[in-house]
Here is the input.
Amino acid sequence: MWDCRNLECLSVDKELQNELTSLDVLEIKYCPKLRSFLEEDEFRNPNLTSLVFFDYGSLKSLQRIQSFESLQSLYIIKCLTLE
Here is the structure.
């Protein structure tokens, strides 16, 4: 996902989760209003190996990151408010 200027929260509907099991790379870039990433969801993806966050002005935390058990690479670039 790139250049989603008004995106504030990323969540995945439970019905859609079964459709995303083959997702292995997720890149989220240039979303300056994004504050949370899957904080309230129980999104599990057994095949996600790479996750990229780039240029967020409002992202505070990545609390659910441990749910991605196959994650091999995590890139966090220009996320100045991340705790």
Observations:
- The first helix runs from residue 14 to 17.
- The CA atoms of residues 8 and 33 lie 5 Å apart.
- The mean pLDDT is 81.
- The two ends are 22 Å apart (CA to CA).
